[in-house]
Write a structure and sequence with these properties.
Length: about 280
């Protein structure tokens, strides 16, 4: 082996860590103001090669956008909290296989927890991009739980119509109905019950939705849908087929506008007099 080759045998620890990044298209503002003279191969030393590699890494870093898990979390939060244009752009730049670092949730969870307008449009975008409808988070919960927890009536209806099971139970043996009641979203609780959410299922702590509603002096409505399995094993039965059919169905209703959703403290309200709740 030549002396140049031997001098160039540097360990991985000698170089800066390289994070996973994606290239960007605009490099017009990138400046390199300390270019090194390029040594010839016959005179190159290990120090020369090391300096050139450092320079190459610096230039490469300047032309890349950070795509590490922590920075991905910003995209999730934009989908949940940003305006509609920002949220759509964030989704378009993401992969549906990504998970938020906190609870291992995909983007549909963050759309379900959204309190601003456009959640249904964003949910359709997730489905069109191939989101996995059968996923649960680290607590064993589904996007329906988060829609119920946040009082997002629009997303509760969307997810149930998409095929999410109303009585799916998390690791604490709770259903989405528990979270609607716990957080005071009784209109959402009523809708879930009308869609066959069971008031008799018992959580690990021994509570039932019926007892919780009684504590709040709230009378549950009658069921408007047929009986549903109280402990289903699937989040969204036939998810792949449902996803394809839904996209076909939506394609025929693209001109229809989604109801406006506004923020009123902790509640998501549809801007329609039929759905507004008095304080």
């Amino acid at each position: 082996m030549s002396s140049v080759a031997m001098d160039c045998e540097l360990s991985h620890e000698a170089f800066p860590a390289v994070s996973r990044k994606r290239p960007v298209s605009d490099t017009s503002e990138i400046q390199v103001d300390h270019l090194l003279p390029l040594p010839s191969l016959s005179t190159a030393t290990a120090e020369d090669v090391y300096k050139l590699l450092l320079l190459a890494e610096e230039v490469r870093s300047a032309t890349m956008v950070d795509d590490t898990p922590l920075n991905r979390d910003d995209l999730f939060e934009t989908v949940r909290d940003g305006d509609l244009a920002e949220a759509k752009k964030a989704l378009a730049s993401a992969e549906m296989s990504w998970r938020h670092s906190a609870l291992g949730q995909n983007f549909l969870f963050f759309v379900a927890a959204r309190r601003r307008r456009g959640c249904e449009e964003l949910a359709k975008q997730c489905v069109a991009m191939g989101i996995n409808l059968e996923e649960v988070d680290l607590n064993g919960q589904t996007p329906l739980f988060w829609a119920a927890k946040r009082g997002n009536t629009v997303m509760v209806k969307f997810l149930l119509n998409l095929g999410f099971t109303v009585n799916f139970r998390d690791k604490a043996r709770k259903t989405a109905l528990f979270f609607a009641i716990e957080n005071g979203h009784l209109d959402v609780a009523d809708y879930l019950i009308e869609r066959s959410a069971s008031t008799l299922v018992r959580a690990s702590n021994g509570k039932t939705p019926r007892a919780m509603l009684k504590e709040k002096n709230h009378k549950a409505p009658g069921r408007k849908r047929k009986w549903a399995e109280p402990s289903p094993s699937l989040v969204c039965p036939g998810a792949e087929t449902r996803s394809r059919f839904a996209q076909w169905e939506w394609a025929g209703t693209q001109d229809e506008s989604e109801p406006m959703v506004g923020k009123e403290e902790e509640n998501v309200l549809v801007e329609d007099s039929r759905h507004l709740r008095e304080k």
